[in-house]
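Design review, sub-item: ligand-bound model
Attendees: FS, YL, KQ
YL presented the inputs for the adenosine-5'-diphosphate complex:
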Amino acid sequence: MELSVSFFAARPHSCVLPVVPARPDLKLRRRPLTLRRRSAIRAQVSDPSRCRETDDDGFVLEDVPHLTNFIPDLPSYPNPLHKSQAYAIVKQTFVSPEDVVAEKIVVRKDSPRGVHFRRAGPREKVYFKSEEVRACVVTCGGLCPGINTVIREIVCGLNYMYGVDDILGIEGGYRGFYSKNTSQLTPKVVNDIHKRGGTFLRTSRGGHDTQKIVDNIQDRGINQVYIIGGDGTQKGAALIYQEVEKRGLQVAVAGIPKTIDNDIAVIDKSFGFDTAVEEAQRAINAAHVEVESVENGVGVVKLMGRYSGFIAMFATLASRDVDCCLIPESPFYLEGKGGLFEFVEQRLKENGHVVIVLAEGAGQEYVAQSMHTVDGRDASGNRLLLDVGLWLSQQIKDHFTKVQKMAINMKYIDPTYMIRAIPSNASDNIYCTLLAQSAVHGAMAGYTGFTVGPVNSRHAYIPISVSISFPALP
Ligand SMILES: Nc1ncnc2c1ncn2[C@@H]1O[C@H](COP(=O)(O)OP(=O)(O)O)[C@@H](O)[C@H]1O
Ligand SMILES: O=P(O)(O)OC[C@H]1O[C@](O)(COP(=O)(O)O)[C@@H](O)[C@@H]1O
Ligand SMILES: [Mg+2]
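KQ shared the predicted structure:
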């Protein structure tokens, strides 16, 4: 998902601080193209999970690794979907190996054709016999609506489409590989889990130990690993894939990107994001109702987004009740001309109330300064954020009572965990199902070291290393 707005007004007549959450990472990967057509090269970029082919018309294929890259004699088999009744009526069941998805759909007539990814979906040939598959599913990192749907559909997809019945649930994130027992997942066990929030398999931060995890994969005879998680999880998945390749194991590693923050590169958006934006409306609406019912009402709503303001900005755009949106990508200041205090005062004079939405990662430097706190980290190494919502509410209150001598009615709402903990809505359920099925088709077809996701609305296989190329986090 790319935001191209450089300045936006949340509702008519309101001045909103600039918003420039560009994703510059996408631009860096194109190189000058001098190769002749038909002399496509397979280039290994910095890490082995990344192979690109380049043609002289500027066609670039960001390919995903295949098990046959390091196990050349691996036998293949006809896809069992050949015999599936459900697919019998479909004109074209299988995706052609030539099908690719363009990263950019808006291009100039004479510009190079640009970066492409393999189209996701079932292939004619598979590289696993169904009865020999032993798959596992793990969920890591923070919660997000839809995780249970993805788990359910991996299990049901493997079972119903490919006849796989040996699927293990890894409990409690990466550390579950080596410190917990596994559970057996069947369509019956996961039948109803999509109706619940959270993760049926439980999750954790920290605890990624590549050697121990791959030892465990090997010891348990697992040959397909489905890893549901955010940017940190996918970095861990890339290391697992590399180790599997180093050991020459026939193990397909598939990542399914999960993050409510939407900070995964290339894909249109992450699952659960729509649900989160929808749920955020309820908090914004409550703030609006509260502040318009009192004199000089100031509503502050804090939404999730560690380093990206996607939820805050989309909830703002959808709501139309928000006067100002603050996000980490765009610095703001409080005092003086053009500052937030001046803007709040102006809106109170004009309209009698004001609603501010802010992403939790915004203004962290100010909060740290005023609280004199040390930099804390969670078990995964993510910076622990300070409560910018509480801090901002206090700053506004102090400014108006002490400096402006003006009484205001402050209503601060922090719905963050409530938003993250709900089940996914209808459109996210469909999206999660497609992601899970794409991952299953990819792993059965022998692809590995890949993540799945929609690129310009078409599901594609993306090298894990590319999906984690979102700008480095502080
Ligand atoms: N750079 C990394 N290399 C290997 N594993 C990582 C890395 N960053 C995070 N992880 C692991 O991924 C898991 C989830 O990471 P975290 O950042 O908490 O959540 P998310 O994946 O949602 O971003 C944790 O178990 C953590 O140890
Ligand atoms: O669950 P925790 O450890 O309190 O972490 C909260 C953080 O998790 C998130 O919801 C999502 O982060 P991840 O996707 O990286 O797991 C952030 O928006 C938020 O800052
Ligand atoms: Mg993360």
